[in-house]
Amino acid sequence: MTESQRHNALLNILSHRRTITVEKVINTFGISPATARRDINKLEEQGKLTKVRNGAEAKPQTRMFWSPINIHQTSNHDEKTRIAHYAAQLCHSGDSVLINCGSTAFLLGQEICGSDILVITNYFPLIRYLITKEHDEVVIIGGEYHRTRGLMLAPHQEVGHGYAAHYMFTSGKGLTADGLYKMDMLAAMSEQKMMRQATKLVVLVDSSKVGQRVGMLFASTAQIDIVITGRDAPHNVVTALEAQGIEVVLV
């Protein structure tokens, strides 16, 4: 794992746990105490975390909704753009696709906006974007709107029932040889119901999330058909996924 990958992974952990000890950094990444402290010092100098006694804590952040205005501020934006561009090439005229929440999902929505593709989604920022840009075919999965998640979550069991999709595009907080992990349990449970309507499950994750086991297991490797990630994804995880019959695309 390169220094850049390690830094991204460390910040990803802090986004969920809020604090981390030097000992935990050492054990997680298999590095020396000096390297762990140097990583924390560098990230503090960049204003990305706060160094505390024997560890670090996350910087307070205001949750940001992805939009055409601020999408460029997301972490690993260039890599996510490449991932979204490749994912869009999988879609053909007349296809129907399920797109879930997240910055990469939003970028994918931008890529296919205006094409002859039916988009099925419960992700409000994407819904708003597609309608504003007058995309012809948008199926909005109804339910209760959760502002902090930017999602429409349905209380009933059959989410998206009746709408079949060629692909379901989703992302998560971690991807290992066991499968895809997500943090938000309520949103994940809703997406698992949506997944039944899709022919193929395509996972879109930037390379900093590959090898991370964070939150709940959303989809096992047996359920995943394609993974699209960055070229810096750990080779051992990529190899393990491919050995299980998953098509892994590095962009």
What does this structure look like?
It is a single chain. The protein is α/β, with parallel strands linked by helices. It is built from 8 helices and 15 strands. The strands form 4 sheets. A 7-stranded parallel β-sheet has the order 6-5-4-9-12-14-15, with helices on both faces. It has a 3-stranded antiparallel β-sheet with strand order 1-3-2. A hairpin with a 4-residue loop joins strand 7 (144-146) and strand 8 (151-153).
DSSP E strands, number? 15
Shape: globular
Structural class: alpha/beta
Strands in their spatial order, largest beta sheet: 6-5-4-9-12-14-15
Task: Count helical runs.
Answer: 8
Major beta sheet summary = 7 strands, parallel
The proportion of residues in beta strands is 15-25%
Helix content: 25-40%
- Low-confidence regions: none
Distance between the termini: 17 Å
Q: Quote the average pLDDT.
A: 87
Structural Rg: 18 Å
Helix and strand run: HEHHEEHEHEHEEEEEEHEEEHE
